[in-house]
Write a structure and sequence with these properties.
By secondary structure, the chain is α+β, with helices and mostly antiparallel strands. It is 35% helix and 26% strand. It folds into 2 domains: 3-127, no CATH class; 150-399, 3-Layer(aba) Sandwich (Rossmann fold).
Length: 403
């Protein structure tokens, strides 16, 4: 961990609400300023050039590393603002960092004696810089109660009056969680039209609700194709789409592998595609240069069967440990391979672990530019993991030669 990353991590631990990276190291720097605003579980990052601004969301747990990459050799100053005060990192031309905190005391502000040569001595000052105690409020869901949302009524989640059925409240929260994860990426989406492919849509409850969210809440013209292998499911879903007058929502029979999209694809959704079907869905999304990918994997058996290791046999000795480790390794490899292909991947908790162990969602957003150093690191990490455990994942084989 670099010195800058350690200090940024301290800022984040001190509950900073906003971070500003400024004072470019060179007049030729691509970005003139970078800001990061704290949201629920992530930071919203804005990167300013002379004429444009680029946005992305980075997971809270990865923020220190990602922001240090953006800073490394490119900027001389980082300011973080919390309720307790201002946190300042200054970076010399040789890359040496210093850290100080200006603490708020009532209405006054004083500079804490916290300039250090090493990160360990600043821990207590940063940790005591103040915390937002917050207030208990009823959560406001995107698909809110009291709204006439026909698919939720037909699913038995809403009553005809738009109230949540008590026994379906967990399902209601799960659906809203998925919509929130999509919403995070669409906050700054400026296009008026969005083309979406939903692989393995099944009964398509979420597909209908994504369409409702895009068209009724975001005001985006959505063209969505739900893809599944079951003829009766496809027929019923098309009937429902007609009933709801969702004109931009169609369902087709088709296999994930080799599907030919009829339009340029902006978003790919794949929920609970079994085992390597997720890999084929991700591969298609990459080949289409989809802007956004949202994938909840399921039934991950491939690497479980392949796992062999001489030095870490403890991970294969116990069946349940082997199963869970293999599933986690599968998603870690998928995330790194997406990064090799120019995406910014995140692994998020989709629903509470209490409800199902299959609770990881892969969210990946295509970057305008991915540094070659980032791609190289991602590939090196993936190859090291594959070598250690004799893994040969389907997505790597599909992309072989492309990553």
């Amino acid at each position: 961990m670099s010195e800058a990353e350690k200090y940024i991590e301290m800022m984040i631990d001190a509950d900073v609400e906003k971070i500003i990276i400024s004072n470019p190291a060179s007049k030729q720097s691509e970005y003139k300023k970078i800001t990061a605003e704290k949201k629920a579980g992530y930071f919203h990052v804005s990167k300013y050039t002379e004429k444009q601004v680029f946005h992305e969301n980075i997971d809270h747990k990865e923020a220190a590393f990602d922001l240090s990459l953006l800073t490394d050799g490119k900027f001389r100053q980082i300011n973080g603002f919390s309720r307790g005060g201002e946190h300042i990192i200054l970076i010399s031309k040789k890359g040496k960092c210093s850290y100080k905190v200006k603490k708020n005391t009532g209405n006054a502000s004083e500079t804490a004696d916290a300039v250090t040569k090493g990160p360990d001595r600043i821990n207590s000052a940063a940790a005591n810089a103040g915390h937002d105690t917050g207030h208990n409020r009823k959560k406001q869901y995107i698909l809110s109660e009291g709204t006439d949302i026909e698919p939720l009524i037909d699913m038995g989640i809403f009553t005809k009056e738009g109230k949540v059925v008590n026994s379906m409240y967990d399902k209601y929260k799960q659906i809203n969680r998925f919509i929130e994860i999509i919403n995070d990426e669409l906050n700054d989406y400026s296009e008026t039209e969005l083309n979406v492919i939903d692989f393995g849509c099944g009964k398509s409850y979420l597909t209908f609700l994504v369409y409702y969210y895009l068209t009724k809440i975001k005001g985006i013209k959505a063209n969505i194709i739900g893809l599944d292998l079951k003829k009766d499911v496809i027929e019923k879903c098309n009937e429902a789409a007609g009933k709801y007058h969702y004109d931009g929502l169609k369902f087709e029979m088709g296999d994930i592998n080799g599907y030919k999209a009829p339009f340029g694809v902006d978003m790919v959704i794949t929920l609970h595609a079994c085992d390597t079907a997720t890999d084929y869905a991700l591969y298609n999304a990459i080949k289409w240069n989809a802007k956004m990918i949202f994938s909840v994997p399921c039934c991950q058996h491939e690497l479980n069967k392949q796992l062999k290791t001489e030095s870490l046999g403890i991970l294969s000795r116990y069946g349940i440990i082997k199963e869970r480790f293999s599933a986690l390794a599968t998603d870690a490899l998928r995330a790194n391979l997406l990064e090799c292909c120019g995406y910014k991947p995140q692994l998020l908790e989709f629903i509470d672990f209490d409800h199902t162990p299959k609770n990881i969602l892969i969210r990946a957003v295509r970057r305008p530019i991915t540094p070659e150093s980032v791609k190289k690191r991602a590939r090196s990490e993936a190859e090291a993991l594959m070598k250690e455990f004799s893994f040969s994942p389907t997505l790597f084989k599909l992309l072989n030669g492309d990553v």
